[in-house]
Amino acid sequence: MSANPDIKAPLALKGRVLTFNDVRDPGQYDYWEKGCVVLENSHISAVGEAGAVAIPDAAKVIDCGDDLILPGFIDGHVHYPQMSVIASYGAKLIDWLNAYTFPEEAKFSDETYAKTAAKLFLAESLRNGYTTNAVFCTTHPESVDAFFTEAERVGLRMMAGKVLMDRHVPDNLCDTARSGYEQSKALIKKWHGKGRNLYAITPRFAPTSTPEQLEVAGALYRESDGVYVQSHVSENIDEINWVAELFPEADSYLDVYNRFNLLGPRTLYGHGIHFSDTDIAMAVETDTSIVHCPTSNLFLGSGLFEYEKLNNAGARLALGTDVGGGTSLSPFATMKAAYEIAQFRDYSLSPFAAFHLLTLGGARALHLDDKVGRLAPGYEADLTVLNLNSTDLIHHRLQNVDSLADILFAQIVLADDRAIRATYANGFEVYKRDE
Ligand code: GUN
Ligand code: ZN
Q1: What is the pLDDT of residue 435?
Q2: What residues line ligand 1, using a CB cutoff of 6 Å?
Q3: What secondary structure letter does DSSP report for 323?
């Protein structure tokens, strides 16, 4: 992973090009078999049929052949400190947090440890084609500094925040309502809007925050211009019952956040599996985004997300890897798990819907759909280049297949990181696969 060089020569990438054009409808897309995307001054300046796009004289032309150029992928929910927690055996949510996750997160008081983890995480994420992630750090401000420093060095559009937890966690992870507020406020001042960084106020989930802490988190969201909120909701039945005991006055888990002014535009909640119709309506009415984390939901045995219901209701939805409850930073593994969960809900998630969630749909959930997730003039120049024939099996499967839907579906089911040929961010190549 390379940092951005100083010189900004325009780039023209030629290849197959796919971009969605409507934040809600995956059927509205442009696909050029022989397309071209021009990157200039960190933005896309032109896109279209190769012959019709004017390429600046100074541009370096990169011929991607039959590769597919897409907007960079969006991961709407992930924990960078949990890279060493992936594949932890035999527990469901609460036991998994206590046995594996909290001991690992405690190590992030050490900024050197946090820096190493942030570098590894971002390198892996780019190797999987992701260019924008909504990221949980740990309770330590050092973990946020480490993450944003590295994201900014590479030139990435990233969202992240310090986890707020003032109860039901080990002492070495515990803050207070006051220290959490003050540290978050200082981090917002330091990082929000610096380069491409965006700050997310991050109460971990209702059980690990006192009402006082949720109160100040809501106040901070209301008083800070343009910042985000991220948390977890309705993931696991035991967790939901625990929340009902802790907050008996609330009508539901989502309503706890509602009562503390933590729902609204730019708020992202992971999971939302066990929602009532009232919860779904509350998410839509308050403009709250829900992030579906399918590999995590299967791995932790949390439940089967109701994509069709939430999507039909008009909810802002993204896909998340949720590493390390999630088992992979692969967009293909994530889309495949979303497809499989939808099958259990008697709904077939189309390949266009899956790639839309990963790009423009996800950007809508992150309120960034005017900046990333689409290949169109004025958008930020974040792209992913896919080798559509990355393995012998995929090559074999695609013999005599020419529909774009079938080509994309084969990638979802069969591809892995070998399919990510290159990743561009802010107009530069930030990852290239060694062939
Ligand atoms: N709920 C609270 N914290 C976490 C976490 O780290 N991962 C998941 N999957 N759910 C959570
Ligand atoms: Zn999570």
Answers
A1: 85
A2: 79, 93, 97, 101, 204-205, 232, 235, 296, 322, 325
A3: B
